[in-house]
UniProtKB/TrEMBL annotation:
Annotated BTB domain residues: 31-132
InterPro entries, per the entry: BTB/POZ_dom, KCTD4_C, SKP1/BTB/POZ_sf, T1-type_BTB
Region (Disordered) location: 1-23
Name this protein carries in UniProt: KCTD4 protein
Stretch forming the signal peptide: none
BP terms from Gene Ontology: protein homooligomerization
Species in which this protein is naturally found: Dryoscopus gambensis
SMART domains: BTB (SM00225)
Organism domain of life: Eukaryota
Gene: Kctd4
Length: 253
C-alpha cells in the first residue's frame, strides 16, 4: 500500500510540475509581442513596451489605444521602421544610446514625441543642442615641426568633421610617401608633428623626407587643405599676402 501511494504521489507531482511548466511556457509566449513598424518587424517583451505608463506603446498593449494589424496579425505602426530601433533600445536600457556619427536627431525627436516618450524626447533635444553648440566652437589642426613649433601649418574651422577629413587626408598622403619610415611623424587629437623637417635652398621647410619620386612641402599641405575644403563645399573668399601669385603661398586663406 505504501509503494502504490508513493507512486501515485509521484505521478501527481509530475503532472502538477508539467502543468506548471506548460503554463509558464504559455505565459512566456504570450509575453512576446511582435510589432510591424513601417515594414520592419520587432520582437520584444510586453514588459518592455509597457515600461513607461501613458506612452503610446503602453496604450496599445493595454488596450487604451486602438492599433491596426497587418496580414500576419502583428500590430502595425505607420512610423519610421529604422529609427524605431533607437526607441526600442531606449525602452530596454532606460537611457539614450546612439551610434557614433548619428545625425538624425530632429527625426528621432519627432518619433519620441509620437510615441509619447517625454523623457526620450528631452534627451534627444538636449543632445541636439549640445551638438549645435559644439559645431559653433572653432576646432583646429596644427601641423608642426617637433623641434620648432613656430614652423608649420595651422588650420582653424568651426566644422569638426572637416578638420577630421583634413587630418585623415594628410596622414594618408604622408604614409603613402614614407615607405619604410613609419615613425616619421606622430599624431594626437589636434596635432600632427613631423620629426624630420628638411630645409630647401630657398628656405621653405619640407615636411616629408625627399625621395626619388616625391617631395611634400608646406605648400603641398596647403594645397591638400584647399582641395579638401573645396570638395566639402567651402568657397574661397580671399587670401592674404599672396605675393607669389599662388594661393598656397599665402600666409592666410
Amino acid at each position: 500500500m505504501e509503494r502504490k501511494g508513493s507512486r501515485r504521489e509521484n505521478e501527481c507531482e509530475e503532472k502538477t510540475s508539467n502543468s506548471e511548466s506548460s503554463e509558464l511556457d504559455k505565459d512566456y509566449k504570450t509575453s512576446l509581442i511582435t510589432l510591424n513598424v513601417g515594414g520592419y518587424l520587432y520582437i520584444t517583451q510586453k514588459q518592455t513596451l509597457t515600461k513607461y505608463p501613458d506612452s503610446f506603446l503602453e496604450g496599445i498593449i493595454n488596450g487604451r489605444i486602438m492599433c491596426p494589424f497587418d496580414a500576419d496579425g502583428h500590430y502595425f505602426i505607420d512610423r519610421d521602421g529604422l529609427l524605431f530601433r533607437h526607441i526600442l533600445n531606449f525602452l530596454r536600457n532606460g537611457e539614450l544610446l546612439l551610434p557614433e556619427g548619428f545625425r538624425e536627431n530632429q527625426l528621432l525627436a519627432q518619433e519620441a514625441e509620437f510615441f509619447q516618450l517625454k523623457v526620450l524626447s528631452e534627451a534627444v533635444k538636449s543632445r541636439w543642442e549640445k551638438e549645435q553648440l559644439a559645431s559653433r566652437e572653432t576646432t583646429f589642426l596644427e601641423i608642426t615641426d617637433s623641434h620648432d613649433r613656430s614652423q608649420g601649418l595651422r588650420i582653424f574651422c568651426n566644422a569638426p568633421e572637416f578638420i577630421a577629413k583634413i587630418k585623415s587626408r594628410i596622414v594618408l598622403v604622408s604614409k603613402s610617401r614614407l615607405d619604410g619610415f613609419p615613425e616619421e611623424f606622430s599624431v594626437s587629437s589636434n596635432i600632427i608633428q613631423f620629426k624630420y623637417f628638411i630645409k630647401s635652398e630657398n628656405g621653405t621647410r619640407l615636411v616629408l623626407k625627399e625621395d626619388n619620386t616625391f617631395v611634400c612641402t608646406l605648400e603641398t599641405l596647403k594645397f591638400e587643405a584647399i582641395m579638401t575644403a573645396l570638395k566639402c563645399g567651402f568657397r574661397l573668399l580671399t587670401s592674404l599676402d599672396c605675393s607669389s601669385g599662388s594661393l598656397v603661398h599665402s600666409d592666410a586663406l
